[in-house]
Write a structure and sequence with these properties.
34% of the residues lie in helices and 25% in strands. The protein is of the alpha+beta class. The chain has two domains: 173 residues, Thermophilic metalloprotease (M29) (Thermophilic metalloprotease-like), CATH 3.40.1830.10; 182 residues, no CATH class.
């Protein structure tokens, strides 16, 4: 029996990424960022991109074990440095209209040893500051980009700790194949159909013009006001040239912008958060006038404290996303310890930077205009999961009346 993924599945995956993920255009440059263990897929993405008409494909490999070496042994002063030649390269690629593919497959237990969270935080902050212009391009959807995953032995062992490593890896690949619709007869057609379903939901929510969302669940009692002119998005998006792309594969969410100063109450996480190889679990955040004023965590308290203190906007919410409990990834019953998958199995919020595309005219607004409209600004954008089978969400309409959006974790259909 051929091991997963088969050669055909890798080819189909690469084609899906090139056609649906970033929608490669003739003459375009494609940048692929991949862990060294995913070289098989990275090479096939290059093939698919060139077949779609790409002018050039640049593959950048990374090795998280080398990151661990730096966290352990590098001198203190080097942690706050980031090579500007590299930041300039990403900015140049973005300015020239490149599409960006990131293969995301971190080891959830990479930093479970005696690594000082402060050293990790310094390194992340330096990279975030240096790459701010490049990341702004992506968050404004100026360029096409997509985030996808690849099963690795380390990740699989965390998801399936009771299985032999090879069997665990096979199980994880099966989940990836299902979630990305590679098991459909025609994955590209299946994704187009899925994107249409998400667009239908987006259109319904945008027609409502909710003023506020009210959350009730186990450990959660939260209100989130939505700014005037907020826009719901989900599935395929259009870049600055009008070309559709899918930022996340898989995706089951619809999302919008909350008002940075109008989040109040307490929210409790329902899945572990893997934050750069560090786990934060069973945590709760209390907000007053948009800002975190108290928090607890059974695991990763110091890491959560570092995250919230990253900058002024890190203690505020930049995204609110709705995902039904009755959805493919959630129904798998698997906790993935990987935000790309876990956030698409659960309603979630994000600490930090808001997407300007979630606001009417937001991509043309300057910082002061975005502030005045209620958009949050930060160097970070970290999603955390809050959905469950007991979650209820009500929407407050412009006339002040209330109607159910979610009941028992799922859409409350009219």
């Amino acid at each position: 029996m051929e091991l997963l993924p088969t050669d055909k599945q890798i080819m189909d995956y690469a084609e899906l990424i090139a056609m649906i993920g970033v929608n490669v255009q003739p003459g375009q440059t494609v940048v692929v960022m991949a862990p060294i263990g995913a070289a098989r897929l990275a090479r096939q993405i290059a093939v698919a991109a060139y077949e779609a008409g790409a002018h050039n494909v640049h593959v950048e490999y990374n090795d998280e074990e080398l990151s661990l070496v730096k966290y352990k042994h590098a001198p203190e002063e080097s942690l706050s440095e980031y090579p500007m030649w590299r930041a300039n390269a990403w900015e140049e690629y973005a300015e020239n209209g490149a599409a960006f593919v990131t293969i995301y497959a971190p080891n959830p237990d990479l930093l479970t040893g005696d690594i000082d969270p402060r050293r990790v935080g310094e390194t992340i902050k330096a990279a975030s500051q240096a790459l701010q212009k490049y990341r702004s391009k992506l968050m404004n959807h100026a360029n096409s980009w997509t985030l996808i995953s690849y099963a690795t032995p380390e990740w699989a062992a965390k998801v399936y700790p009771d299985l032999p490593v090879q069997e665990a890896e096979q199980q994880l690949w099966q989940r990836i194949i299902e979630a990305t619709r590679l098991d459909a007869g025609n994955p590209v057609a299946a994704w187009k159909k899925h994107n249409r379903r998400l667009k239908d939901r987006v259109d319904l929510l945008n027609a409502k013009r909710y003023k506020q969302l009210r959350y009730q669940g186990e450990g959660t009692d939260l209100t989130i006001d939505l700014p005037e002119g907020h826009i719901w998005l989900g599935g395929a998006k259009a870049n600055a040239k009008g070309d559709d792309f899918n930022p996340n594969m898989p995706t089951e969410e619809v999302f919008t912008m909350p008002h940075r100063d109008k989040v109040n109450g307490t929210v409790r996480s329902t899945k572990p958060l893997n934050y750069n190889g560090q786990l934060i679990n069973n945590f709760a955040l209390t907000f007053k006038d948009g800002k975190v004023v108290d928090f607890q965590a059974e695991q990763g308290y110091e890491i959560l404290a570092q995250l919230i203190a990253a900058d002024e906007g890190a203690s505020r919410i930049g995204e609110v996303a709705l995902v039904p409990d009755d959805s493919p990834i959630s129904n798998s019953g698997v906790v993935f310890f990987n935000t790309l998958f876990d956030e698409n199995a659960s309603c979630h919020l994000a600490l930090g930077q808001a997407y300007p595309v979630n606001l009417e005219g937001g991509t043309t607004m300057g910082p002061e205009e975005l502030d005045a409209a209620g958009a949050n600004r930060s160097l970070i954008h970290v999603d955390f999961m809050i959905g469950s089978a007991s979650l209820s969400i009500d929407g407050i309409l412009p006339d002040g009346s209330s109607e159910p959006i979610f009941r028992n974790g799922n859409w409350a259909e009219a």
